[in-house]
Design a protein that fits this description.
Order of helices and strands of chain A: HEEEEEEEHEEHEHEHEEEEHEEEEEEEE
Structural class of chain A: alpha+beta
Strand order of the largest sheet of chain A: 7-6-15-10-11
Number of strands of chain A: 23
Strand content of chain A: 25-35%
Oligomer: homodimer
Largest sheet of chain A: 5 strands, mixed
Number of domains of chain A: 3
Shape of chain A: globular
Largest interface: A-B, 64 and 64 residues
Distance between the termini of chain A: 50 Å
Number of helices of chain A: 6
Helix content of chain A: 10-25%
Chain lengths: 413, 413
């Protein structure tokens, strides 16, 4: 399935999804509410002004905070990130590989079933049973593999994300380890944890070509991966994978399988295209291959959110803030340059430390005179790894951590 | 102004506010959206089904998660609390002393002005100027003084809150200390920090009788109070005090003055009724008096959220979770009893520690057989203070921390 097919699928889905939600048995309403948020209401009558107005934004998302790349991909604007560490639902980016399932999926969350395979006694648990096993609450950075793709110079397919295909959120769920134990432990020979999404697959295409199924090393899965049913204090929203999602702290978003239907402990990696050949880091022009590195672990990265560089500013004192994370570990420190990388100053971290997989935020006041300024941040993780100046060139433009690429140009009048 | 007057005011406001929002120049819409959320849309046309349907819920609040006590007071249901530490906007309780100002107040947040008095050089700062001074990010428990009032036996006036006039949120703002420094420091003789809200006051009533103005000790104000413009990663919502609110970590909600218009360093406590005679702890039947303790510091408290006791359960294993906080300090440990307080077991804390002013959550699996069970939690703060078995009886039914009162009765079939 090439990207043109997928685009068609996205457009088709968006249209169908909308009609199903607001049309169907009756017509309904989709309205722009106060503050620019799109509220797509449930069908309430057979007529209404909103029935004529199509909205591609997921329910409750804040239109003013997001950039729409497609019907399945929404990016948080640089200046829509706050400084309270977490990103609320309304402002969190969206990236779905397949059309989001129908809302009926979350009508009865507790009845959701998970099939567990590759254990001593394979079986099924409902969400209400999973909730009684064990509970962990963990803050993680959720980041798309292609975040920062827009800064590459070659034309890589995929959403042209700037900085905003990322967010820090707090999840609650049950450890993968506890689920394995509930079924008598992992089968001998298993080397991976494989999660399968519950999206309906389009007909006429081989399931392996489209299914959202990813594998992670068994050791990582048993160490701290978990199955989440809650995000930021509310039941996991549908568009973010509710009722149940696999969370692999420190790993790229593609591994955090949504609508999780099957959790399997497997001797091999999934045969799905997005595991075998997709999400593989390789030189520009080469095809994906299972021998290439998979998009698993994230590494140290930071960027400035304010000033965002949108429009000219007045001279004087301004607060520079942004985010920094280590990927698989915490952040030791962040430096700021307001002269294009010639000199650097310490950028103090603010706010609570939500753990090694969360991001930290930094804030430092600077005085900017009239002229053009190039601002950038550079983070160092807890192991001493320094965020690099340059990106690693690669075919699909994945994993951009370059501090140069993430710089902000500010015009001061 | 007695409570009957206030109730009348609330009802009147709700009606007027609604008409202003959806009627006015044209008519508009107020609809129940997906998931039970009420979305009050901006006026879009002169006709529409929602124009006939009045909603008293603030924009974007989740109807299914809240109990409506009045047009100004909404309580989070016990089972609407999650386990992700923070409470999102949609589920956070609301308690306003006066009608919420018009939405126009947040049309241009950065232009909001704060008057600073009782400093070497009194003056005014805009919000954009405050943002450039200094930034702190702090998680705190926001709790109404009357939370738990419903468990008292005498008839105390005020909202009959159960457990849900409380929430844990993350704020960003500027320290009171930094604001004082920006104006040359605090005037000699100041002993209090006094914040004044920007609500429009009703005519024909002495301002002191209704103004939301509270004082806290100067030492506390300079230690860690701050002025917040952001909550949980988004600009502070109007109903929670946006554009700017005074946050006093560890203090009851009444001190966290909304729509902050004036920050003053004063030799005396405010002359407002809610400072002089309101929010004073005294024996039942006595009048409020400035010599009685004011509702400042919170103390150690915990309660169970799940099971919530709403409806019968099936026997077997269930996860018991809840919240615990120390008020002015962190929580050392929590104990759980499933037999009415006869025996206790350790209830492990889960999730990230967001600092001493945030709450922690606990979760412990238990097996419940058929019958009636009385479940309760008991917290110990970092100084060794133990949550008491019994409440302190007092006229206005403030500050209930009794673990007995907060117990949950569970029927298992």
């Amino acid at each position: 399935m090439n990207s043109r097919n997928l685009q068609w699928l996205e457009a088709e889905y968006t249209r169908r999804s909308f009609l199903r939600r607001v049309g169907g048995a009756g017509s309904g309403l989709a309205l722009f509410g106060a503050g620019g948020t799109v509220w797509a209401a449930e069908p309430t009558s057979t007529t209404g002004p909103g029935a004529l107005q199509e909205t591609p934004f997921p329910v409750g998302k804040d239109v003013d905070s997001l950039i729409r790349h497609s019907g399945l991909t929404f990016e948080t604007k640089r200046d829509a990130f706050g400084t309270s560490t977490i990103v609320p639902y309304e402002r969190l980016f969206v990236r779905n590989n397949l059309p989001t399932p129908d809302r009926a999926l979350v009508d009865d969350r507790n009845a959701w079933t998970l099939s567990v395979e590759g254990v001593a006694r394979p079986g099924i648990l409902t969400l209400v049973q999973l909730k009684a096993l064990e509970v962990v609450t963990v803050a993680t950075v959720l980041q798309c593999s292609g975040n920062g793709r827009a800064f590459f110079e070659h034309e890589a397919s995929g959403s042209q994300w700037g900085v905003g295909a990322a967010g820090c959120v707090i999840w609650s769920g049950v450890p993968v380890r506890a689920v394995a134990e509930a079924f008598g432990g992992v089968s001998r020979g298993a080397r991976f944890v494989t999660g399968t999404g519950g999206e309906e697959l389009p007909e006429g295409i081989s399931p392996d070509d489209v299914v959202v199924e990813r594998s992670i090393p068994l050791e990582k899965g048993l160490e701290d991966a978990f199955l989440a049913w809650e995000m930021n204090g509310e039941p996991l929203p549908l568009v973010h994978g509710g009722p149940l999602r696999l969370i692999v702290p420190g790993y790229f978003g593609i591994n955090q399988v949504k609508f999780l239907r099957t959790l399997a402990f497997t001797p091999e990696e999934s045969s799905a295209a997005i595991m075998q050949t997709g999400y593989r880091v390789r030189p520009i022009g080469e095809s994906g291959d299972p021998n290439q590195p998979s998009m698993w672990e994230m590494s140290v990265k930071s960027w400035i959110n304010h000033p965002s560089g949108d429009g000219p500013m007045r001279s004087g004192r301004v607060m520079v803030d942004g985010v920094a994370f280590g990927g698989m570990r915490g952040v030791r420190r962040v430096e700021l340059s307001v002269d294009g990388g010639t000199t650097w100053q310490d950028a103090p971290l603010i706010g609570p430390n939500l753990g090694p997989y969360a991001w930290r935020q930094f804030a430092v006041p600077v005085t900017l005179e009239r002229g053009t300024h190039l601002l950038m941040s550079r983070a160092v993780d807890d192991a001493g790894n320094v965020q690099p100046a340059d990106r690693l060139e690669n075919h699909r433009a994945y994993a951009n951590t370059s501090w140069r690429d993430h710089a902000v140009t500010v015009e001061v009048e």
